[in-house]
Amino acid sequence: MASPSPSERRLQKELSSLMKDPPPGVSVDANAVYQHLNLWNVHMKGADGTLYQGEDFQLQFRFSSKYPFDSPEVTFVGDNIPIHPHVYSNGHICLSILTDDWSPALSVQSVCLSIISMLSSCKEKASTLSIEKH
Amino acid sequence: MGNCLKGTSNEDISLLRENERSSEQQIEPIQPSSYRDRTPVFYPTPNDGRPANQLTEEEQVRIARRIGLMEHLPILAYDDSINKNKECVICMIEFKIGEEVRYLPCMHVYHVSCIDDWLMRSFTCPSCMEPVDAALLTSYDTN
């Protein structure tokens, strides 16, 4: 087998650290990731005491071969897309660290934490962004 | 006569080609190594990568200046008694003692090939987001 690229090696490390020490409410389907290292499905539970308590969400992370220099593409997928001012109904997330403010020091773990905190700080469930404006 | 003319024009073309080739060669060696593609791609802005021949003159100047500044960033042997970071946050691989690491003005350290690849995209420290060029200039002022 060919030796893993720097990007694959880093994803493998991130996977084991995410499984060992996941942020609260976050889990990853490791078996699926082992088959497609560049496509992760991450489960996220709405944090207790927030508007999203009791809800389950699915996030999809897609990594290019230039990760971590390219940011991952992260979207909500599945039946339950959170109703949030910064989340489009198609699952697209408006979060600066996923575009202009990305840095290779960030990781799946830190992106998950940012999304949890984005959801948790929401005061009122409203989808102010429409797909047409996107 | 016809032959003479033909000969000259051929020569002109080959001279031109040679010039093109030598200018490419000047750019290639400074392209960072590890994550490299077949054709070197340059990033005038972080999410916009293009091969050298598709850059405007202004973008080429900006990239050349950045490469010049990068050469001023010191490369030193990793010493675990000085550096708090045990691993390079870009590749997430542990530093080995004595391994060459590049220091940014904010004192964050990375593997040379890892940080050079990032600096070619964005001239900021991945850990603290401090702009490297501003910090470099300040360090010259204080010296």
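qc> Strands of chain B lie at 41-45, 48-51, 75-77, 100-103, 109-111.
qc> done
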